[in-house]
Each structure stands twice: as C-alpha cells, then as structure tokens.
Amino acid sequence: MTLIEAENAIIEEFSMYEEWLDKYEYLIELGKSLKDYPEEAKTDDKLIKGCQSRVWLDYKIEDGLIVFNADSDAIITKGIISLLIGLYSGRTPQEILSSDFSVVEKIGLKENLSPTRANGLVSMIAKIKEIASNNC
After folding, report:
1. Contact assessment for residue 121 and residue 104, using Cβ atoms and an 8 Å cutoff
2. Which entry of 10, 30, 48, 51 is annotated as an active-site residue?
3. Do the Cβ atoms of 82 and 30 come closer than 8 Å?
4. Are residues 56 and 71 in contact, defined by beta-carbon separation less than 8 angstroms?
5. Average pLDDT taken over every residue of the chain
6. What is the mean pLDDT of residues 58-67?
7. DSSP codes, 43-65
C-alpha cells in the first residue's frame, strides 16, 4: 500500500466516527496494537522532546526502509504515535520526507487535542522527519 493510500485509509477510518470520544477510543485501540517495546530501550536518547507524556521512538533500517517502534506512558499518546508509525514505518526516507503530514489535519486530530498533546504531536512528526532526513 502506498503512503497516500495508507493516509486515505486512515482518513476514511476516522470519518466513520462522528464524535471525538469515539475517535479517542479508536486511538486507544491503535495504541494497544503497538508491538512490545523493550524496557531496556526506554532510554533518554529515545525520548521525544516536547511531549508532555513520555514517548520513546526507536528505529532500524531494513532494506532501505525505516522501521519504527515506539511506546508511551500515556494511552492517548500511545495511540497517536501508533497512528504515525502505522503510516510511516516501513517506508523509505524519501517517502516520509515527501509527506506533508496533512493527514493529522484531515482527520481533525491536531485541533481536537489539548495544547500540550498537540505540541507533542508536532514533536513526534518532527522526530520522524528528522530520522528520515538523517537516513537519506
């Protein structure tokens, strides 16, 4: 599935829910689907700066693709990082850098988060872009 197709699938998925409470529930379910993140990998160098909650983001390069793994100590934030790595993990650095990340506006995510969570979302996106940029 291309990145655009994946983004469109997320937009469609979110459009099925009318209330933001239901969308938060969906985010929580996404967070539960994250693969286990090893405790020993929860180090300061993997923490995303600018998030109110603690969010760890790690990655490896496999066949030219960036494969992300993440975790958070807050359930909504875990859902947000899960959404992002679901979209951008397994992509080339160029694919990630070509994205305008507008999917977060199209699903209304940023505007429906508290200011501190919205800042965290911006920090998560910035870190994903930074990793992609450093691996071009």
Report:
1. yes
2. 51
3. yes
4. yes
5. 95
6. 98
7. -GGGBPTT-SS-EEEEEEEETTE
Start-to-end Cα distance in the chain: 21
**pLDDT for res 52:** 83
Q: In which element (H, E) is residue 115 found?
A: helix 115-134
Task: Supply 12's token pair.
Answer: 């469609």
Residue 41 carries which DSSP code? G
Q: Which two tokens stand for residue 103?
A: 């999917």
Does the pTM exceed 0.85? yes
Q: Is 99 in a helix, a strand, or coil?
A: coil
Burial readout 52-63 (b: 16 or more C-beta within 10 A, e: otherwise): ebebbbbbeeee
Active site annotation includes 136: no
